[in-house]
Amino acid sequence: MSLADSSVAITAGSGTTIATSTVGSKLHQVVMQADASGHIAGSLPTYFYCSPPSAVGANKLHLDLFNATGSGKIIDIRGLWLIPKTDVAVVGAVASRIDVYRTSAVGTGGTAAATDSATVDVAGGNFTKFDESNSAIPAQITARLIPTGGATISRWLFPTFVPMEETATSMAYISQFQNLIPALTFGQKLVVRENTGLLFKQGSVVSVGSLTILIAFTLE
After folding, report:
1. pLDDT on residue 87
2. What is the model's pLDDT at position 175?
3. What SS3 class is residue 205?
């Protein structure tokens, strides 16, 4: 990661060297942007979590992501995708409603996520880094596939509907590219502070098929 340095005084002929670039025989100062965290834009350590396909089911708890007290980090959700499994025939299936909630307690039961696994669709899903030089994710940040307890709901955030039909003309192929948290659209990032989490829970309609949950996030 790269933090922006303190400001410096610029004095012609002395002081700190300032980066420049020549364009059209004119010298232009080179500027690097910093984001609200104080990091040089594009340098904030980034990670993602990916679940294996989870079979849909009425009122099913699909995934719990939690940032427990002591992590010393804030999770900023940069992207969230719900990806229907389209290599298995589920012709005529209705969409699955997935509600996203904020939670105040970690999930229990189910299957805990792995870290940096090389196994495709590893049970519990997988945390990994965008850059191998990133620091390890604190142990207090956890994910759990199909929790059976805990994951206490404190607030409903929003619903989304995932089309499950696999035919080439279905919306399933389009929806998998839809980022539900477009960072440049909203005024603030979706933040998960210590002792809070996110829960992905299906609505009351059964539907058929399976879906994968992909979350891209940074740590501050």
Report:
1. 73
2. 66
3. coil
Answer whether 215's CB lies under 8 Å from 49's CB.
yes
50 and 38 fall within a common domain: no
Q: Are residues 1 and 19 in the same domain?
A: yes
Q: Where are the alpha helices (DSSP H) in the chain?
A: 172-175
Do residues 51 and 71 share a domain?
yes
The dihedral through the CA atoms of 77, 81, 150, 129 has a sign that is negative
- Mean predicted confidence (pLDDT) in 65-88: 92
Under a CB-based contact definition with an 8 Å cutoff, are residues 64 and 158 in contact? no
| pLDDT of residue 1 exceeding 50 | no
- For the chain, the residue count is 220
pTM of this prediction?
0.81
Range of the domain at 163: 46-219
Q: Are the beta carbons of 22 and 28 closer than 8 angstroms? A: yes
- Written as one letter, the residue type at 40 is I
